[in-house]
Amino acid sequence: MTTLRLLPGPGAVIRKSDLVVMAVGEITGGTVEGLQAAIGSADLDAAFGAAVSYLQTAGVDGGGVVHLDRHGSMEVWATGAVRVVSDTETHDAATYLAGLSLRFPVGTLRSIAAITAPAEPGWQSIESGAASGAGFVLVGTDDAPVDAAPSAGSHANQSGAELAGAAEPAEPEPQEHEPQVAEPEPQDDQPFVAVSLSEPIDLSDLQPLPTADVEVEAVASDQPAYAVPQIVLGVLSPGGHFNHPEARYCSRTGVKMGASATRALTEGVRPPLGVLTFDNGSTYSVQHDTVIGREPETDERVENETAAPLSVLGDNQEVSRRHLFMELVDWDVFITDLDTANGTHIRESANQEVRRLVPGQRTALPGGAEVFIGTTRFQYHEHHVR
Predict the structure, then answer these.
(1) Which domain holds residue 260?
(2) Do residues 118 and 8 both lie within one domain?
(3) How far apart are the C-alpha atoms of 14 and 11, rounded to whole Å?
C-alpha cells in the first residue's frame, strides 16, 4: 500500500484503502463528517464520484480526490487552491473552471496539496482515517521507492506525519511562485479627499445629480438561465440539511432521517442530484439541464443558456454534435436521445440488458444506470439514497 506523509496546514485528509480525499481551508467537523459519509459505504469507484460531487458544493478553498490504483493508473481530481505534482507535470487546479481531472501511471504521482499553506495545522485527529493537513506527499509503495524531489514547485521533498499516525509534520518549504498583486496606478485627475467623520459635514453646496437626458442601462446578470437556483419541496435532516423527500439518510452527513419532524415538506434550493463518471475518469456534477455531444453549443438550448453544454472530446464520430439531452425535473433526472444516427443505449441496473432509447422519448435515469453514446460510457451516481 502506498505511504502518505501529511503536509501541515488547515484542512483535512481522509483515507479509505486506495482512495484519499482532501479538503483545504478552514474545515469544520461537519465537512469531515460529510466526506466520510459520502465515501463510507460505497465501493471505491462510486466513492470517488461521491467525494468529487461533495467537494464541488462544500464551500471549501480547494479539494482533491485521488484513487491510488484505479484499473492500473492513478486517478486525480482537484479543484480550487490545490497543486498536483507528478514526475513530469505540475498543475494548479485553480486554472480549471470545472476542476482538474487527470490520470497518471501508478507510482508517478508525487504530491497534491494546498498551493499556499500555513506552517501550523488547524486541528489534529487520527480518528476514522482522518487527519489535519493541507495535502500529502506520496512517499513510496511496497514495490518501489519514490524519488524525493521530482520537479520545481512540488512538495515531494517535504516530510511529515504519516496518515497512519506518526510524528508531528515538519514545516513546508517556501513556495517558489507567490501570487503577484498589481499595484493600482494613481489617478491624478481624481484626487482622494479625506473627510473627518467626527465633525458636522456641510451639505448645503451639494447639487442633486441630473436626471434629464440620462440613459440608464440595465445591468445584465452574468449567471446563465440554467444556473438559476431551483426551488423544490424537500425535507430537512436533523442537522438542517435539505434532502430528497424520500431520503433515508442525509446526503451531507449520512445521519438517519427522522420519522416525524424531519418528514415535514419544506421549500429549499435543490442541491446537485449526483455525478456522472466517464470511462476516462472525468466527472460532471448533475445540477443543471445539460446537452451532451461533440459540439453541444450547436443546440438552441445551449445558445439561449437554458441548458449547460457538456462536450465529449476526441475524434469519436459515433457521438453526434448534439447527442443527448439531460433534464432535471424536481428531484428526478431524465435523458432524451436527440434523434442521433448511432443512438443512445442504457443499462438501468447490473442485472438488466442494454437497450436502445427511443429517439425523442424522455427516459428516467435511475441511480447506478450506465449510458452508452457511441463508444463513450458514463455512469450516474445518485446522491440522495431513497
Answers:
(1) 230-269
(2) yes
(3) 10
